[in-house]
Amino acid sequence: MKMHARKTLYLIERISTLIRSEERKQFAVYGLQPVHGQILEYLAQCNKFSDTPAAITEYLGLTKGTVSQSIQILVRKGYIEKRTDSDDLRVVHLSLTEAGQQLVANFSSIELFDRIDKKIAAEKFTTIEDALVKTLTALQQANQSKSFGLCKTCQYFAEIDSHYHCKLTELPLTPAETEKICREHLPPTT
Asked: Same domain for 152 and 95?
């Protein structure tokens, strides 16, 4: 059971890594870090009771300092504005400016997920792992990134005369090597 849970965790981490990589590329265009985009996206979705620095800190699981510095940057760049609560002067509310709303609208991660969602919507999944593997594969293809999959799941993997073999390198593989990730991995064609 531990191995199954570990593989599921690996798949979730790999999907997250690809998402963060895509976000870094998008946000860099605007001189922002992914945390800035996460704050903007949160503010675009939250209600009037949850638009405070404390709520952002709690939601994103970040430190107060990181959130505070990020908010300062976003205010300076004109993407968010602060306003003091009319009933409690100690509370600060945050909202997206028009420029901030436009920036959130320009983020294309959602478009990327729309494309992969359509690709995997018709699939039938038997396990969470199966769903995550197909989601990861679709995300990697949409993102045009290498799969870094397990050797034994690669289209170059072969079993010849009861021995494992890599058809790309034309080298034999040990059973342990087939359980390792490879940068030359290509998902099997279906």
From this structure: no
Which CATH number covers residue 50?
1.10.10.10
Cα-to-chain-centroid distance, residue 72: 25
Domain enclosing residue 41, as ranges: 32-106
Residue 108 is predicted with a pLDDT of 58
Structural domain ending residue among the three candidates 106, 132, 159: 106
User: Hey, CA dihedral for 32, 38, 39, 41, is it positive or negative?
Assistant: positive
In terms of phi and psi (left: phi > 0; alpha: psi -120 to 50; beta: otherwise), the region of 161 is: left
The ranges of the chain with pLDDT < 70 are 1, 3-4, 108-115, 118-119, 142-147, 190
Taking the alpha carbons of 78, 79, 84, 90 in that order, is the dihedral positive or negative?
A: negative
